[in-house]
Every structure is written in C-alpha cells, then in structure tokens.
Specification:
This protein has about 375 residues and is an alpha/beta fold. Strands 3-2-4-1-5-6-7-8 form an 8-stranded mixed sheet, with helices on both faces. The chain is about 50% helix and about 10% strand. Strand 7 and strand 8 form a beta hairpin. It binds guanosine-5'-diphosphate and magnesium ion.
Length: about 375
Amino acid sequence: MGQLELAIILVIISVVVVGSITYIQNQKNKKREQQQGCPVKFHPQPDPVVQVEDEFQSTKTLKEALAQTEKNLFGRLKSLFSNETARKNIDEVEEILYTSDLGPQTVQRLMGKVESELSSKEQSNIGNIQALLKTEFTDIFAQAHVVEPDSKHIFAHLRTDQKPTVWMVVGVNGAGKTTTIGKLAAHLAKEGKKVLVAAGDTFRAAAGGQLKVWTERAQVEIFSPEGVTDPSAVAFDAVAKAKAQDYDVVIIDTAGRLHTQANLMDELKKMKRVMTKVIPDAPHETLIVLDANSGQNALIQAREFHSALGLTGVVLTKMDGTAKGGVAVGLSQELKIPIRLIGMGEKIGDLRAFSSQEFIASLLDLE
Ligand code: GDP
Ligand code: MG
C-alpha cells in the first residue's frame, strides 16, 4: 500500500470517527435538553384553537325540534295507513288532525278538500293524503303572508326601515317574551344596530332583573327607570329617548298578566297610544309571543290580542318541547297573521326565522 492510499484511508477513518462522535454528542444534548424540557430548536407552535361556543349557532334542526310533532301527525297517519281499510281510515285521519292542534276550522277545511278532491280509492293511499296536506298547508301559510326567510338575518322580514323603528312585544306570562326580546336584541346588535330595550313589564318584580341579564348578554342598552311603575310612561320615555339619541330599534317588553284580561288589554292599548305622541306610526311591529305547547289556548290568546292591538306578526316559542306544532297551521288559517320567528331553545341561536317550507317538510316528510 502506497503512502497516498494510506493517507486516504486515514482521512476516511477520521471523517467516520469525527462524524460518529458529533452524532453521539448531538444525541446526548438532545436527550439532556428534552429532560430539561427545553427543545434544541424552537419551532413556534400556533396557539391551540380555543373552542368558543357560538351562541348564534343553533344546535338543532327544525326537524329534530319537531320530532314529537312528526310522531304525532305524519307518524300517526303512517301507522294508521299501514293496517286499516279505506273508509275507516278517513274518519281516523280526521281524528288525528283534530288531536294535532290544527284547530277545528283548519281540520274542516282539510277534510272538505279530502272529500272533494280525492275519490274513495285515492283516499286509501297515504301518498295522496300527504300530498293534499302539503298543498293545503302551503296555501294556508301563503294566505297568512308568511315569507320564506332571508338568509341574511333572522329579522329580515320585520320592519327596520324607520329610525327609530319600534317593536312592541306582547303575550301572556311565561310565553317567552323577555327571552325572545333578549335573543332578538343580540341578533340586531350583531348586525351593528343601535338597540334600546324598554322594561315595560313593570308589574312583575323579577321581570326587570331578567331583562337586564339578557341585555347584558346581548350587549345592548336597557331602559328601566328607577321607581317608574306606569308601563305607558316607560314606553313613552323609551321611544322619546330613542328618537332623541338616534337609536335604530326600540323593543318594548310588556306585562303578560294583570288583575283581569280587560285590564291588561287596556294597559297595552294605552302603551300603544302614548307612543304615537312621539312617533305617529309607532309601534311599527306588534309581535305576539305564543308558547307552542299551549295548543288551542295559543289560538285563543292570539285572537284576543289581535282584536285589541292589531298584531303584525307571531313568534312561536318552545317548538323544541312540543308535540303541538300543528298550532302554527291553525294560527295562520284562522288569523292570517304571519309567523315570523320560532324559538327552539334558550340560546340566542335558538331563535330562528320561520320557514313554512321547512316546517311542512318537518311535519309531513319522513326523510
Ligand atoms: P315571558 O313571561 O313571556 O317574558 O317569558 P320568559 O321570557 O320569561 O320565558 C319563560 C320561560 O320559558 C323561561 O324559562 C325561558 O327560558 C323559557 N323559554 C323561552 N323561550 C323558549 C324556547 O324557545 N324554548 C324553551 N325550551 N324554553 C324557552
Ligand atoms: Mg317577561
């Protein structure tokens, strides 16, 4: 072996030895640094994604919320048709409709159509009954001026064209007025509207506190003057303040119960009257909040409030816990007031624009 070859071999050996020593040293360092909790090289990590619950996001679909109703209406129709004969069926169809809170007037309309448009043979087919109910429900909602929701925001079909626009919210105790007002205020504020909520339910001690919690959550201002017990004074002052201070929307909460129903209606009429002294066409919306669970009572209440106050829209709450979704159809058939919103829970996102198409599908489709 010549000198050159020897030199090359020595160089190779020293490269291998030095390389190995460096590698071993590096591994040792890494191990030590890992044990000390300090990485050799710092790779900046993104902050862990914080899962903030979006309060504006609804957790349920309408179909889920109306699962009970479906079980009662279409589910019952379906099981009926699976094992009965034609004529017997049609009486039982009528009974199912009656017990689904559609209201007698609506049931009569529907049964009249069944008799006039379907032959006996056609009546024995559930597909025909289903199609007929769909057509009739669609027509009933259209006649009540129900408009399909706008994807922009849930209040798209409520008036906001005046500055300030005044919404008065009425309904019996426990229907969900204060909760609905809180949710609505949050949605308006999210869209950049300047909102004032007036605590017009001066008769219940706890009402002011509950409204305050909601306005804080919605980050809007509450108008609740100390010591003022006259709801008309609250309404008047709130509308005057909103006009003077450039608010976009004023929402007025109201009492749901007085000594007598006549007292209540008089008080609400007075509230309405005093507002017109500030803004002649206020309130621009008079919304009734109805608990869907109250079935036929919801219809009776709506009729009474409507004749006293001239309602412009309906909010149907607690659709998440009801087997009586049929009341939405009955209300539309009998009063012709549009259902604008539905409440399906207690979160802000559980207040949704009412879609008659989605509602009908939830009631009458199995998929
Ligand atoms: P008000 O007396 O008309 O003002 O009714 P509240 O707003 O105080 O509501 C009465 C109760 O119903 C409260 O416990 C609310 O949380 C509840 N509530 C309101 N809306 C809904 C809804 O859509 N679904 C459910 N599950 N509960 C609701
Ligand atoms: Mg209340």
